[in-house]
Each structure stands twice: as C-alpha cells, then as structure tokens.
Amino acid sequence: MHNLDTCEVTALGDELDGEHETLEVDQAQVQQRGLEMASSNLGLVLTGVNTMANYEQVLHLIRYKNWHTETLFDRKFKLFCSELNGRYISNDFKVEV
C-alpha cells in the first residue's frame, strides 16, 4: 500500500479573495486522521505521511464558500498529491465550481 505525504488544492487564475471567498475544512477531522493543514489565499495544503484513504476522506470534507457570488462567474481549482517527499507526483485534477 502506498502512502501519500502531501495534497495541494490551489485556485487557478486569481487568488482567493479572503473578504468574500475561502476554502474550508474541519481542522478536527484533519487532525483526527493524523494530517496537518495550512491555508492561504492560494488554497490549502494537507501534509503528513498517511494512507490514500485518509487523504481521500479529508479531501471530501473541503468546502468552497463565496459570500459575493455576483463578483465571480466561475472558480477553478487544481488538486495534486505526492508521495515519498515529492518523488512521485500525481496528475493534476481540475474542477470548476
């Protein structure tokens, strides 16, 4: 079984505007699965050597919130994960909200 050490979810195009949009995930759920999280206006990064299943569970919990939808017509995000300290990197997965 392969373990991941990082997954990044980043905004494509403009950075997230902290005044009206954010990516959120329940920090307690992240810690419960033995992972750490850092977030910024670029997106969020999950770190910690752990199973793909635990990463998948946390990725399902990520929520995008936008309080001023009239200012944004669409938002695109990119996800990629790595193992062995970046030695192996997944293909990018892109999604549009």
From TrEMBL:
Residue intervals of the Calsyntenin C-terminal domain: 1-97
Superkingdom, taxonomy of origin: Eukaryota
UniProt keyword annotation of Membrane present: yes
Keywords: Calcium, Cell adhesion, Glycoprotein, Membrane, Repeat, Signal, Transmembrane, Transmembrane helix
Classification via InterPro entries: CLSTN_C
Protein location: Membrane
GO BP annotations listed: cell adhesion; positive regulation of synapse assembly; positive regulation of synaptic transmission
GO cellular component: cell surface; postsynaptic membrane
Lipid bilayer topology: Single-pass type I membrane protein
Name of protein: Calsyntenin C-terminal domain-containing protein
Lineage: Eukaryota, Metazoa, Chordata, Craniata, Vertebrata
